[in-house]
Amino acid sequence: MAGVRRGVRIAGWGKYVPQRVLTNADLERMVDTSDEWITTRTGIKERRLVADDESTSSMATAASLAALKQAGTDPSQVQLIICATITPEYQFPSVACLLQSALGCQAAAFDLHAACSGFIYAVATGSQFIENGIYERVLVVGAETLSRITDWTDRSTCVLFGDGAGAVYLEATTGESDLRATWLGADGSNPSYLYMDSQARPSATTEGTAGESTCVNLLPPAPPQANVIRMDGREVFRFSTRILVEAVQRVAEQAAWKLDEIDLIVPHQANYRIILSASNYLGVPLDRFYLNVQRYGNTSAASVPIALTEAVAEGRLQPGHKVVLVAFGGGLTWGALALQWPR
Ligand code: COA
């Protein structure tokens, strides 16, 4: 089949969120914050946290099984697994490999690292394998345990994030593709806006010799507690409100859709105010944006597939609907997909 260009069908979708709920009232007891501050600045009321025996790959497995069940198929059919995550259990092996083993399928597997835009990048990547005729059945997952990279003493970040996983199952079709347009982007010139250190970071003493053009010089010295999310909230807010608007406009233009033809926009659930701002700039009413940020906070790469799955379950997406999935995040990265919801 190699070399035959085919379309992509969204055959299944599913999610998993942990049972444990952390409310704004709980956070009031942990840091100097209030339900009123969190709600008015972000729209978030609660978020889910993994139990001690749960992990990114265990949640990815649960979401994948839900997506495969929804598609009426089983793991043996999967030929490729792509897992978007910034919270793998290990530096290597990848979450996708752990998932391949848990599902018991014979599939190629790799992780994709594009922070909160990861799921959009992963669907775009998985679709390429189908369109180019390499594979016919691809499982794409977004899964995160952000609670394990959150500084629970930093009120400016700990109120924002949560854990969860979502997945879609893509199949080849000889009919028209459900995927109508893709728009991806990145700008690595300000890594300090949103980042987490790694053990591979050069020590401060080597920074001076690394050269002006390297990212190393763009980041502050590694703090003692390095493996947690660091963020410049105002800069990220500024970027997010701008790029969300541009991404929707660009992908709609590529799909030859007018903005008022879009039935539903499923945005990355980072902050209610970012989504509200995009609604105002685009002139697309807020009721055409799917929102569940109040229940889960920001779950990074898991955010869009969880929201998509819930939108379908709530009847917000009907066959033939025009839907835009859109995300933005660390990198900085961004991406949008235009989908005609499958009939
Ligand atoms: N509770 C109470 N006060 C808090 C607080 C909290 N959880 N977090 C910060 N504050 C304080 C700050 O210390 C500051 O106090 P000061 O004026 O005395 O210095 C004040 O609130 C305002 O802080 P500021 O950062 O200007 O607030 P903001 O209106 O920009 O809102 C965010 C902060 C984080 C909600 C907002 O910047 C944001 O949503 N940014 C984008 C974050 C995001 O989505 N990241 C992920 C993208 S993928």
Give the helix/strand layout.
Layout: E1 7-16, E2 20-23, H1 24-28, H2 35-42, E3 46-49, H3 56-70, E4 80-84, H4 95-103, E5 108-112, H5 118-131, E6 137-145, H6 155-158, E7 163-173, E8 179-186, E9 194-195, H7 204-207, E10 230-231, H8 233-255, E11 264-267, H9 272-282, H10 293-296, H11 303-313, E12 322-329, E13 333-340
Parallel strand pairs: 4-5, 4-6, 11-12
Antiparallel strand pairs: 1-7, 2-3, 6-7, 8-13, 9-10, 12-13
Helix pairs in contact: 3-4, 8-9
The chain binds coenzyme A (COA).
Structure notes:
With 343 residues, this protein is an alpha/beta fold. It has two domains: 171 residues, Peroxisomal Thiolase, Chain A, domain 1, CATH 3.40.47; 122 residues, Thiolase/Chalcone synthase (Peroxisomal Thiolase, Chain A, domain 1), CATH 3.40.47.10. The protein contains eleven helices and 13 strands. The strands form four sheets. Strands 1-7-6-4-5 form a five-stranded mixed beta sheet, sandwiched between helices. The chain has a four-stranded mixed beta sheet with strand order 8-13-12-11, sandwiched between helices. Strands 2-3 form a two-stranded antiparallel sheet. α3 crosses α4. The two termini are 25 Å apart. About 3% of the residues have low confidence.
What brief labels describe this structure?
343 residues, alpha/beta, Peroxisomal Thiolase, Chain A, domain 1, 2 domains, 5-stranded mixed sheet, 4-stranded mixed sheet, 11 helices, 31% helix, binds coenzyme A
